[in-house]
């Protein structure tokens, strides 16, 4: 099952696990795409999803060959993922339309 086919609750669980996979830019990108399919659910959701999208992009762009990815940017992306997960849990077994 692809990320795009998962329920809101399933995506929430995956978002909560992001912290266990430091600097996983590919996984974050897939989650960004999958969670964007729930946009329009509520203004709070749209705001949290946009914040997650921005934070994961900032993390991706923080990479330098000398130092790797920024831990500060990673922590911000994880925090945004956790906020988005909280809202997705409220949607339960709903699938994107």
TL;DR of this structure?
By secondary structure, this protein is mostly helical. The chain is built from 4 helices and no strands.
Overview of the molecule:
With 97 residues, the protein is an all-alpha fold. It has one domain (23-91). It is built from four helices and no strands. The longest helix is centred in the last third of the chain and has 21 residues, at 71-91. The two termini are 16 Å apart.
Ordered list of secondary-structure elements with their pairings:
Elements: H1 8-17, H2 25-36, H3 43-61, H4 71-91
Helix pairs in contact: 1-2, 1-4, 2-3, 3-4
Strand fraction: under 5%
Q: Count of DSSP E strands? A: 0
**What is the tally of helical segments?**
4
Q: From the alpha-carbon coordinates, what is the Rg to the nearest angstrom?
A: 13 Å
The unreliable regions are none
Order of H and E elements: HHHH
Outline: elongated
Keyword list:
mainly alpha, single chain, 97 residues, elongated
